Amino acid sequence: SFAIRHLNCQGGIMITASHNPKEYNGYKAYWEDGGQLVSPHDKNVIAEVEKIGSIDEISFTGNPALVETIGEEVDKVYLEKVKALSLSPEVVERQKNLSIVYTPLHGTGIKLVPDSLKNFGFTNVHIVEQQAVPDGDFPTVVSPNPEEPAALELAIRKAKAINADLVMATDPDGDRVGIAVRNGDDFVLLNGNQAASLLINYLLTKWSENGKLTGNEFIVKTIVTSELLFDLAKKYGVQHFDVLTGFKYIADIIKRFEGEKTFIGGGEESYGYLVGDFVRDKDAVISCSMIAETAAWAADKGTSMYEILKELYVEFGFYKEKLVSIVRKGKAGAEDIQKIMDDFRTHPPKMLGGSNVVCIKDYESSINHDLVTDAKEPIDLPKSNVLQFFTENGSK
Prior knowledge:
Elements lengths: L1 H5 L4 E6 L9 E6 L9 H10 L21 H12 L5 H6 L5 E4 L9 H8 L4 E3 L25 H10 L3 E5 L6 E7 L2 E5 L1 H18 L7 E6 L5 H8 L3 E5 L3 H10 L5 E7 L3 E4 L8 H17 L4 H12 L13 H17 L4 E2 L2 E8 L4 E4 L5 E3 L8 E5 L5
Parallel strand pairs: 3-4, 3-5, 8-9, 8-10
Antiparallel strand pairs: 1-2, 5-6, 6-7, 10-11, 12-13, 13-14, 13-16, 14-15
Helix pairs in contact: 3-5, 5-10, 7-8, 7-10
């Protein structure tokens, strides 16, 4: 994403299966702004693909003279841009010995995350050596997904052994990060909502302290991400926007407001975050650097990220999130899923978790239905087969 923008390219492709099994290997397609394709470009590309009747119609004749391999010079420019995001260099200087354990989970993060942490000024970074070598078989984990607690086991074991303060693990293609923070003698795994809330809280606090907030700044989250991010935005008078699931929609909002408003940061519950607008996709190099700075800031105040999270819950109310995945495979599975969704639309629940349902958002019909007043408002987002139920006690 950065290279597309830096080199003024028309687009880009990244081949990856990330933390998924190799059968899922495919590619992400990016447009000239560095964001993944959204409408109408995504539909136009697929329309071209569908015109191809046979693989024999495709010319595989290349011109090697047109291939230009980029090197470390792009990495250097990128890392300097990341370093410029720092909001508390003096704090990092005081807390440079903050003990950090980092694992790339056999992925690409090893190439840039340690360099970026060093660039920020952190001098006490420990790598999980067993997971430091890129290996597509991911021999030390069942799944190299930082959302899975088991993926961080080796890192947490090392952190306990050396009395570290922070654990960070990036996924194989280096765009998402999972973290564990110290709580006494133990470590607490934070989910994506909690990590995003701590990061946004730090960013908005420092922007406010530094006198940089003008009322024209904004943050973005996806519709399935915690409302705590919006609570924080409201506290600081920062504009806030919801988008459909997928970081391409966050990139699209940044593009829409380019030159008009200033993007501070954004994130999604699936452990993907972004600070600054020179990259247009979730970025674990940026995220690790800014999360480490958040931890240093907390330590400098004589507290910790875990304690700050609890303080946020006291201030705004307690948030607890749980993700349940229901898998239905194949054509029959797709039909089963649609039937479930149809049933929810026809017979929506009146109560969830002991609290009355007071609002239903249907992103397929683009209607926000207030059940208390019976008022219906349009949802200004692309259509998607998603239903959300909001209850009287503030649950979603």
